[in-house]
Design a protein that fits this description.
Elements (H helix, E strand, L loop, with lengths): L4 E5 L4 H12 L4 E6 L10 E7 L4 H14 L2 E5 L6 H11 L15 H10 L7 E4 L2 H9 L7 E5 L9 E3 L5 H10 L12 E5 L4 E10 L2 E12 L7 E6 L5 H17 L5 E9 L5 E7 L7 H9 L3 H10 L12 E7 L5 E7 L10 E4 L6 E2 L10 E7 L2 H13 L2 E5 L14 H4 L2
Parallel strand pairs: 1-2, 1-4, 2-3
Antiparallel strand pairs: 5-8, 6-7, 6-8, 9-10, 9-12, 10-11, 11-14, 12-13, 14-18, 15-17, 15-19, 16-18
Helix pairs in contact: 1-9, 2-3
Bound molecules: adenosine-5'-diphosphate (ADP) and magnesium ion.
Length: 427
């Protein structure tokens, strides 16, 4: 029996591929909206596609909606953060389960996000929108900003253009970096940059699914992040158990954030910083499943098929989001300590028992960057098992066995690979 057609906005990337597979396996014809610049979508199951221009959202909404009507599409989803607002608008146009189209921009535009979250009583870093050098100077002189502070694009993702600034002298370069960060689609216009107070503490994300405005938190994820000016995520581990009072505080903030940005049907990924005394600050919320293989971790650790659940949510059917397993999973990303040419790779883990997923992206002979954005990561592997401490230990052991050679070598001696350290990520 053939189910209702499903339309994905952007069909590239592991999360989109997982959604497409979940739909195809359940008998739904899968269609995709793509933009010409994205090239061929790598989803073999595709029944058809509409090529549009995501940089021109008004036209894209019209073209996608018209295509979806012709194909009797019964669900519209995206795993691409840049397209979550478009998804909300298309769902609204088609009368399908989706997020509030009037608020969806607030899960993309970090200034709008700060404003709606503040109005909802959610703790967020003090933030100023800056348009020019005078504005930058004023923001840096504002005692509510202070140092260190964070300079970032308004509509960024994947840490692109985000700099932690420790003195006024570093601010101009950081502002240029934020201004130059291009979104995935060139229509993502840069309306200034943000200067934000630094939230000190440990970084986590909360993975949630909302259906008919009722939210279930699947897991809290502990994130390992590089130190220094550029922050790149080097590992995710879940589920993390927080102290009950801390968990209650986190849930309160995240629930309010989800409501404030109009998430009614679908996934969300809320990034928070927790201070040692348990206070929670929301850094950002995205109306999509967490990237960086978080869906895979949820699947292995908790036995929840997130793609299937999100498909059901988008189709307006009851979704299975209760854990059927109680294990642990971690993904470790390997980043290069400095820029150069990758000349050899030894000891990268192989897929096998307890290691369900490995992926090496950087070809031998290719140029690699020191980790500045998530896209600079060289590869990753996932470790899973019933016991959190054992899983983390195995991941550490596997990470230590990886050797890469990058030419020219670092002046100080042999390369030390960046990967989440156990101390940084232990539950
Ligand atoms: N206000 C802040 N305080 C502390 N760290 C921050 C702050 N803003 C950003 N960061 C760090 O920079 C990273 C990337 O910033 P984020 O706002 O999440 O941008 P992106 O949308 O590119 O992921 C965060 O994961 C965090 O490590
Ligand atoms: Mg982020």
């Amino acid at each position: 029996m053939t189910g209702a057609a499903v339309l994905l906005l952007d069909a590239a990337g592991p999360e989109s591929v997982a959604l497409a597979r979940a739909a195809a396996e359940r008998g739904h014809p899968v269609h995709a909206a793509t933009t010409a610049a994205d090239g061929q979508p790598p989803v073999p199951e595709l029944a058809g596609q509409v090529v549009t221009d995501f940089a021109r959202p008004d036209r894209a909404v019209e073209e996608i909606t018209a295509y979806a009507r012709r194909r009797s599409v019964g669900a519209v989803l995206t795993a691409n953060e840049y397209l979550t607002e478009l998804a909300a608008l298309v769902c609204a146009g088609l009368g399908l389960p989706g997020n509030d189209p009037a608020l969806a921009h607030a899960a993309r535009d970090k200034m709008a996000m700060v404003n709606v979250l503040t109005a909802a009583g959610v703790r967020v870093p003090y933030t100023r929108l800056v348009h020019d050098d005078t504005g930058l100077h004023d923001a840096l002189a504002d005692p509510a900003v202070g140092f260190p502070c964070v300079i970032k694009p308004v509509r960024g993702a994947g840490s692109a253009g985000v700099t932690v600034v420790t003195s006024p002298a570093e601010a101009a370069a950081a502002a240029d970096t934020a201004r130059m960060a291009r979104g995935q689609y060139s229509g993502e216009s840069a309306a200034g940059i943000l200067v934000q107070a630094y939230a000190a503490g440990d970084e986590y994300s909360v993975e949630s699914v909302t259906q008919d405005a009722v939210t279930t938190h699947l897991a809290v994820t502990r994130k390992a992040v590089t130190c220094g000016a550029r922050r790149v995520e080097t590992g995710h581990s879940l589920p993390v158990r927080l102290l009950p009072a801390t968990e209650a505080a986190v849930r309160r903030e995240v629930d309010a954030a989800i409501r404030a940005v109009g998430i009614r049907h679908g996934a969300s990924h809320t990034e928070v910083i927790i201070t040692p005394d348990g206070r929670c600050t929301v850094i950002e919320i995205a109306a999509r499943l967490g990237a960086g293989h978080i869906g895979l971790l949820v699947q292995h650790a908790l036995g929840i098929d997130v793609s299937a659940a999100l498909l059901d949510v988008a189709l307006g059917r009851p979704a299975a989001i209760n854990p059927t397993a109680h294990g642990h999973a971690t993904v470790r990303f390997i980043t290069s300590p400095h820029a150069g040419r990758l000349t050899s790779l030894i000891g990268f883990p192989k897929r096998g028992p307890g290691v369900p997923f490995v992926r090496w992206r950087a070809a031998i002979g290719s140029s690699v960057n020191a980790a500045g954005v998530n896209a600079d990561r060289l590869g990753c592997f996932v470790v899973t098992g019933p016991d959190a401490a054992e899983v983390e230990q195995q991941a550490d052991t596997l990470a230590r066995q990886i050797r890469v050679q990058i030419d020219p070598p670092a002046p100080g001696g042999p390369d030390q690979l960046n990967s989440a350290s156990r101390s940084a990520i232990a539950p």
